[in-house]
Automatic annotation (TrEMBL):
Domain of life the protein comes from: Bacteria
Cited PANTHER family: METAL-SULFUR CLUSTER BIOSYNTHESIS PROTEINS YUAD-RELATED (PTHR36930), MOSC DOMAIN-CONTAINING PROTEIN (PTHR36930:SF1)
Protein name according to UniProt: MOSC domain-containing protein
InterPro entries: MoCF_Sase_C, MOSC_domain, Pyrv_Knase-like_insert_dom_sf
Any single Pfam family the record assigns to this protein: MOSC
Domain MOSC: 18-168
Amino acid sequence: MSGTVTAVSSNGEYSFTKPNRDSITLLAGLGVAGDVHAGATVKHRSRVAQDPTQPNLRQVHLMHQELFDELGRAGFQVLPGQLGENITTSGIDLLGLPTGTLLHIGDTAIVEVTGLRNPCHQIDNFQHGLLKQVVGRDESGNVVRKAGIMSIVIQGGEIRPGDMIRAELPAEPHRPLDRV
């Protein structure tokens, strides 16, 4: 299973969106260099308020370009970085990966998939009605989250648009992604 990096984004300040960059640098055990969400412990404000000593399982946020295409068909215009992701991908089924998958990105970087992004109401502040497009229910009533996946950095490295992504699945039995 493989794909491509289509965009990279980071922001040193708390903001819903993250500007696109020519490259980002991943730091082992921390996240994206210079990004407000980098650190060994949680940095997302709601999680800090709950318990600031929790490990940061949301160091790097990946989102698939295919979601933006789907949103476009529903009348929304969303570009890479606008939903706060660090790495926008193409050609790899991020939501279908099991927990613990290793993603080899570019020449040296490796991230471990920790779970699904749990989007919040800020998405509707960005574009009204968008939250219902990225969180819904399947025919059995189960919650379906489409707003990308979260990961931790196992091995650092520089990442640029055009870099290849290769998925290394964990040993079976696979654990499905859950929100983190």
